[in-house]
Each structure stands twice: as structure tokens, then as C-alpha cells.
Design brief:
The chain is an alpha+beta fold. It has 3 helices and 7 strands. Strands 1, 2, 3, 4, 5, 6 and 7 form a 7-stranded mixed β-sheet that branches.
Length: 160
């Protein structure tokens, strides 16, 4: 039996996995560009933006994009014939030293300003963004390591 021009269900699943990975990498690259060039983030002391994992010698504060990504974080959906989209949940983590005062609050505000219902559409390569918003956030102090982690879960809706 053929599915959408593919000979087997394994072929369909492999094709879907490739598309999902492309979508994730496209989003990570776009968020990296947005966060790494913003002047206010730099003014508020941001020293680095990383995709998936920070360097071992990264200086605080920094942002990591997508280290909380799981396979269940991407859901595809159909809007009409030949149109489809993705509902993507992606984690952004702000890492800062506990003794850095209120720096992390300014960084949270800047990330929120840039990514929560942005005025302009996110410049993705293959899909256009329908919406992006900060769905959840918390503050996790880690006293033993003398750092704090602020995970922010973004929800992005995209359409082809």
C-alpha cells in the first residue's frame, strides 16, 4: 500500500522525521539570530547565545536554545488541501549567576519582548510563523552551583 507517494509506512515516518528535524533546526537558527543581534540583550549583559548546549567555558549570563527539546514537542496539523503546519514547543534557558543581582529579570523581559507575540513574523526559511508566545516560565535557583536557570517554554505555530 502506498502512502502519499511513499512505498511503506517506514518511508512515511522517515520523511516526517526529516521534516520535523528541518523545522526544529530552522526555528533554532532563527531564534539564535534574533537573540544574538538584539542590542538591549547585549546592553543588559548577555554574553552568549548557544544552540542546544553551551560551551564548557561559557561566561554568565547566557541563553541556550532548545536543550529541552523532546520528540513529542512537534505536532503536525493540516489546515486545508496542500497546506499544513506545525505546533512546536521549544525551551529557551537563561543561565545566570545567583550573585548577578537583577540581570536575569532584564533578560527575561527582553526575551519576552522579542518572542511573545512578535510584531513581525519570525523569518523562517520554509514556513511562515502564525504565532509565537511564551507559554510557561519559572526561576530555578541552584545554590550549590551558585547559578540560576530560567527555563522558558515557547510555543510556535507555523504554516506552509
Amino acid at each position: 500500500m502506498a502512502f502519499y507517494g511513499v512505498a511503506s509506512i517506514e518511508g512515511v515516518l522517515e520523511r516526517q522525521y526529516v521534516i520535523v528535524m528541518f523545522v526544529i533546526e530552522d526555528i533554532r537558527a532563527t531564534l539564535y539570530t534574533i537573540l544574538s543581534v538584539d542590542a538591549l540583550l547585549q546592553t543588559h549583559g548577555l554574553l552568549g547565545v548557544y544552540q542546544s548546549q553551551a560551551k564548557d567555558d561559557a561566561q554568565f549570563p547566557y541563553i541556550v536554545i532548545g536543550d529541552g527539546m523532546t520528540q513529542g514537542a512537534v505536532t503536525s496539523w493540516d489546515t486545508m488541501p496542500r497546506k499544513f503546519g506545525f505546533d512546536v514547543r521549544l525551551m529557551i534557558n537563561i543561565w545566570d549567576l545567583l550573585l548577578n543581582g537583577d540581570t536575569y529579570l532584564y533578560l527575561i523581559e527582553d526575551v519576552y519582548r522579542l518572542l511573545h507575540h512578535p510584531i513581525d513574523e519570525l523569518p523562517l526559511t520554509a514556513y511562515h510563523s502564525v504565532d509565537c508566545y511564551c507559554e510557561w516560565m519559572t526561576n530555578v535557583p541552584l545554590p550549590r552551583e551558585r547559578v540560576r536557570n530560567i527555563p522558558i517554554r515557547l510555543r510556535l505555530l507555523q504554516q506552509s
